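Inputs:
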Amino acid sequence: MTASLTLNKITAQKGIGITEAANRVADLGWTPSYVQEAMTFPTDYKISKVARDPMKQVLRSYFPMQEEKDNRVYGALDAALRGDMFRNVEPRWVEWMKLFLAIIPFPEISAARSMAMVGRLAPGEELRTGFTMQMVDEFRHSTIQMNLKKWYMENYIDPAGFDITEAAFGKCYATTIGRQFAEGFITGDAITSANVYLTVVAETAFTNTLFVAMPSEAARNGDYALPTVFLSVQSDESRHIGNGHSMLMSMINNPDNHLLLERDLKYAFWQNHAIVDAAIGTFIEYGTTNRDKNKESYAELWHRWIYEDYYRTYMLPLEKYGIKIHHDDVAEAWDRIVKKNYVHKVAQFFSVGWPVNFWRIEAQTEKDFEWFEHKYPGWYAEFGDYWKWYGKKSKPGETNILFDQENGYVYPHRCWSCMVPCLIREDIVCDEVDGKIYTYCSKQCAWTHKVAFAAEYEGRPTPAMGRFSGRREWEDCYHGWDLADAIKDLGFVRPDGKTLVPQPHLRFDDKEMWTLDHVRGHTLQSPLRLLRELSPADREKSLAEYRKGFKIRSFN
Amino acid sequence: MSAQVQTAQLKSGAAGAAVFAGSESRKYNYYEPKGRKATHYEDMTVDVQPDPERYLLQDWIISFGDGRPAYSKDSTAAKSSNWHKFRAIDQEWERTHYQRQSTICGMIQNVIDNGRKSGAASRFDKTWVKVLQDHLGAYKHAEFGLGTATMQAQRYGYTQMINNAVLTNSSYKLRFAQDLTLYLAELGIDIGATLDTAAGKKHWLEDPVWQGARKSVESIMGATDYLEQYFAINLVFEPLVGELFRSGFIMQLAAAQGDFITPAVVSAAEADYERNLANAVELFHILAHEPEHAAHNQGVFNGWLAEHGALALEAAKNLQPIWSQPRVKVSSFADALAAAKNRIKTITTEVGIRAPASLTA
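Outputs:
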């Protein structure tokens, strides 16, 4: 046998090329003449140009490729168990996965659903093949993440919180931001939601922090499962980014669309920043025990992935099509992260609310303080004492920190738009929409509710645009409730009927764990309801006080 | 005096490293499994799409411009007192779906590759090649249309279980449409210019034989009720037209024309349909026997059956001339249609509704 002879040379025969295969598959579609397809998902955009499928992949090669990726994922999970991964994993990290993995499967499957919304919009059939694969990809992501969560539940020391996961997702005061994120993919104008918000911004920009940066931190905490699953998920994202860009290119040359594109890019970027940076920033910075000063902080990761990679190489080039890019919002998001301590304030808020969460949050310690101060100079002066108070108040018998009067924390207003509270106190906006008072974390979020999600935009009717609805302020749902009763109603009680699912520490010992009796006797209130009850003058006074912020009392 | 032995504090994040309240709670506990124990499929699927009547405390928080919420029971005319009851019979989640789809892709590719290597296409009956070109080529568009209709429908269902069953249905249909497209293109390489790969679409759009099928498919694509689409595809079009053509024509006649490849390619769709049908029958059986809305739902289903059944039956009858085209005739259209009518009779009986006599007699 000659050295140059290979099996491939023996078996190969002439086939059809990738481009030809993609063209033939694209030719499966036709324009109906007996009955028109119903446009049940409306858009105010005009789409006239045929969208191109940049990936040119067909299902014949897609399914075997995905099966191979799955085999690697599931093989790695088996190997992790054989290697006793959980013996060395950091519980501080896995606890935050109870929140993250409660949220993420719904946004993923929402992305699958949203492919129906864009599937009928693009003229021609070429991109529909891309949307088909994205639909199945997102089905993959949603169920592979449910599987990972079940795997943690079965093998991690404290399964409580994983065991109630989808019920908790629907009820928790923290997962509410994930619901805002996911519903943004599937409701309202089909292009706004399924193209700009989902693919052009969330997938193209923010999956890099979600699915690339966060797995790196997981590995530093002894968790090899999350990187295995999520880097496999991320490998599908390039296809989705291609779909989003191609759809965008089919609209961008029509000047009639520019106003709406500018609106949607502004809304989508700001809300992705507000939601994703809040959650992922907290997981990466506060869920880790690794305090290597040489590793990138979330701010540095953000600069690399969002500023350099997305803003400079994706958003800025859109200007050549005549689209105005909201440079000031990008700069403001950066300032919120590096100057206004956005992520740190979110982590503080999550920890204050631990009794109504469904995972454990332990106090940050001296080792953490040193790293934070190194990466974010001035951090210790603002947050050091708080975490010392938090550690002290983690013992059952102390007043839970949510109602503790000693430490000085003031419970925040909720942003009506992004659902993250108004944590940068000086930036709170109070405005009136349709005769009702609302609070917002920023002027951008106020604009989103008042201007973007409306029936008209800059004089142009926008009937397809979505509307904010539901009981958007979580606190309003339990206004006047005793904390213990609210926790029972939430279902955040362990099977013994008294011990709380959430705990403000990582001590896996019944003697150290909080029960309903420890938290009874405190009444939850809605800050917005209280604000609305004030006279206009008192409301202004209250807001002026709020903008001054609060000072954590000295711990010593 | 005795020596004190100091043991290092146990530090392990593994299950069983400590015993405390909730440390043994290792099952998803927020839903009722269909059987005695939850299946893996149920754990992957149930309640991922939330419901204000179960755990969605704050209700849907973004609505469409006209006030419709993200998901609404009003997206179908059918009613249920418990939309969460349905579980897909095929129990598909991502891993099982990719395994099955990938196996099918491998099977089809092997059959085609080995057939081509043996020069099989050159031994196909020449008349049969034209039948494949014109009619299998036309039929691939029907599969594509049904795939896009289910892609649309998977957005609307009130639960994750319904939507995922519709989604996998879409995935199977779209794969099969592509299977046929690429198979015919590869046949074209071996057969040469005598096989016109553009002819199929022309027949789909213009040939009177296919206009009933196109009208039937377009009616499904144009329906705005997602369950009407799912019903019309699996309970009406598939038995009366899809299976009629695939099983009743291609798979029965191909071997006699010297063609062992096409039946293998088409067989994958027959197996796909058995799974999609099982899911659909389960769902519509539940709805037809609903404790509160059985009569209403049976009325709705009978309406869909009458409307789409009439279109599908006309489509089936229009296909009759195709049976005369192969040179070697081993089965008749009458037999195939009788089998199709028997099939729809069986299906509707399983669901618990009555097919009109026009569809079964």
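Remarks. The two ends of chain A are 82 Å apart (CA to CA). The mean pLDDT of chain A is 95.
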